[in-house]
DNA sequence: AATGAATGAGGTTTCATTCAT
DNA sequence: GATGAATGAAACCTCATTCAT
């Protein structure tokens, strides 16, 4: 019973995520979400009081999925750099396993997305930022050295995102393997751009 | 005469940019844009055939402003690193001098913004990416060393953007001076995160 | 179920016919049609995608009503002249039983009505012209004698229409009974204006 | 001076007639009429206070043109039948010499045209109906024999109109010469459809 | 519980008309 | 006198939401 309700709720959210990701909030259509979910329009409203609530539930799922995914990285018994790699790979994997949610995440994380900013912001308060944690941890352990660890974490996040083609207007390194991307990024983080001349 | 028309056109675009940046395309209201521009609703339609056209004209202005701003950097007679600095400062300055346009730029540059993707994409084909050019130039001159110069340019861009508080859901280094941010970034680019332990 | 939908569709069309007949297409108002139908504005759009489509559906109904009405005349076992009479009476009767549809019919049949000419023309391709058929039949049987039977049919049609007061700017024979009108017309068709002098 | 003003007024009316005939009142556009007249939009309003007034002036011109055209027929020293012929030819000639005005005339004369019915009706009060006059005269002289001379005039009018292809949804006798049409009509008026069998 | 027919607020767009130049 | 830029009322249409079945 309860499971079935919960399952249907998830189905709706998944379809909604596809719509919201593809068309944005305003151009997404409750009717179409219902049809594509294989249920009646009125039924949507048994699960979500309003379109806005459905949107927020979808964004909550974004947060949950990301937290779920990054949950165990911090406790891995590996070097901070290894953790960074694992974390990057996790993010890259989202492109295949949950693109709509990835798009919604990025739209909020990096864009001044105007859809219910306050409410979404409140949800994202709970979003773990593993890159930040790793860098902070690394700094504590003496592995990394930066005056702004938290910010460094966000910078890494933004760089990884940059290399996810589906999220970019101009796709970058489309045909490069994830391993190479990770290597590229790690190298960059380790050595900067190697400005010998200035050193 | 003609100047006056062009001036009014610019006024409308500026107000529109504010609206689009704040509320997004769909929730922006031609009526309100007219009122805030101090002109009649119908007048908007003398300058722009449709709301969509106004939006695209606004996005074209975004491209123009950014190109205008970065035009002369590449030809400066300074080291690539200095150029990077100048370029970063330019970007930071947008926050004060043209925030709505900066927001619209970022919304397209980093978000999968679904509003007229194809048309906006076509406009952004003409957008210069000075960071990319500088890195490429630096690689040629031997100052920088990276297998993916273009991509490195975009990564720098995304990092600078990360440090512009107005563009971030969670503002970073809000009270840090631009000079320090530039220094932070340049240092990062030069030395990575100084992972001595791994070296 | 289905019947109820169909019934409501017919109701809308009837109200719409009244509006279109009275005010013309452009000055008819979906809102008002809705109100007069006792339903909401949006409901109209459940039955007809656009105002134009409602108009065309109304014109289709015109064709259907006229065809329905004239269906059985041709097969009557009476002389062509008798058929003409029956047919005239049918037309006269429309004034009382479906004036709006009669007006819309005449507006298209005799006026260069500019509302969606091509589309309406396509609909009227299916409109039976019983007067034409009767004259053709009569010519074949030797009852009538005219070089242009089809055209003669249309001429009769136009004459009958002329004697329907509701369709004329200057009402003719307003207080004359239909029987007398029919007699007048039949006499004219049989004998013309009896120009003895010229004979 | 005055002549020039009057001339320009006529030009506007002619262009307006074309627009009104082609698109109907509501879909005709003052701006377009101005442009096609080669004058400014505001200038139209120096000649006609409103669009409606321009329309009514155009319809007044219709009446004037028709009256002008039929003025001298009644006084011709020929038989009523000959007068009918001349009158028919006059009407046929309108198709080539003033089609827009002919269309506007027919739209009002035979259709329940809803554009300013009362006002247009008032104008048409002054419209001569030569066919009616001729028949009445013919009846007086004993040439014609009909209980409803006025109505017979209108019937003839409607028949002639039927044979003007530009006025009909389904053009009739498109490739038949006017002379033959006149002959056809005159014969019909004289002898009807020659129902020998019934005689 | 599930449905989808019905609703009407709200926003874009057109165009007759005005008026400052 | 002539102009056309500016205006805003009005109408079509969409779609989130409700509710009777």
From TrEMBL, chains A, B, C, D:
Keywords: DNA-binding, Repressor. It comes from the Bacteria. Residues 29-48 bind DNA. This is TetR family transcriptional regulator. InterPro entries: Homeodomain-like_sf, HTH-type_Tx_Regulator, HTH_TetR, KstR2_TetR_C, Tet_transcr_reg_TetR-rel_C_sf. The gene is acrR3. Residues 6-66 form the HTH tetR-type domain.
